[in-house]
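STRUCTURE REQUEST FORM
Protein name: LLM class F420-dependent oxidoreductase
Source organism: Paractinoplanes aksuensis
Requested output: structure tokens
Priority: standard
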Amino acid sequence: MDFGVGYFPTHDGLRPGEIARRAEERGHSAIFFAEHTHIPAGRETAWPGGAQLPQKYWHTYDLFVALTAAAEATSRLRIGSGVCLVTERDPIITAKEVASVDHLSGGRFEFGVGLGWNREEMRNHGTDPRRRVPVMTERIKAMREIWLHDEASFHGEHVDFERIWSWPKPAQRPHPPVLIGGGGPTVLDRVLDHGDGWFPQWRDENVFERIGELRARADRYLQVQMLSVPPDPKALEQCERAGVDRVSVWLPSGPWSVVEPALEKWEAAIAELTGR
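Status: completed
Returned output:
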């Protein structure tokens, strides 16, 4: 089992390249950056994490700008989206950004994707929250066509384009792993249909039972990576027993003096599990 970290790369915290460099130097295998283009000030949709939404949610750098900085600052670290809100993105532009970061990083990109929880945020991007599942599904499938083919076309209800050329292609072939985030009732169906793996949160309901269900239903190997895992060796052991491929903890946003103690706590839990 590999170990990574997640981080909201805010403009007033540790810079994306710097935290990525430190994570690589300390032996972590991956870093994942969160994405929110904005948070609607009306705050109608309840945040799943509690009553008070942390300020970092509307102070993050652009996801792909942050990922590029992380790629340039490292040479081995896997860099990923945790998660990219595909429901709020143009698929042709996003396919270009994914391919560009993967190419620039030498094939180190992990494409975590999610539906998003903030309904007003989706609406501001022109997506009806009631249609977010088919919208995301089509956009992912359209992006795959762009990555796989020199000349790509796609015709669906929510995405439609005639023959296009778009380069670079991703360094990873056929493309970076698409990790489907979420813990809703249909998420495993979506992973099986168009994912390379599942990307749940520790807090998702019945997550360990559902990992077993996914593996039982799959006709190919599907990796499982988990976000928001607590820095507790017992939690890590539970993930290891369930066959999770990589676990990542969310680090606090801020200067190194804020980030370092949380990272050390995570590393202490890893050391207790692994004995090194």
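Reviewer notes: The domain at 2-274 is CATH 3.20.20.30 (TIM Barrel). Strands lie at 2-7, 30-33, 78-85, 109-114, 152-155, 160-164, 178-181, 197-199, 223-226, 246-250.
Form closed.
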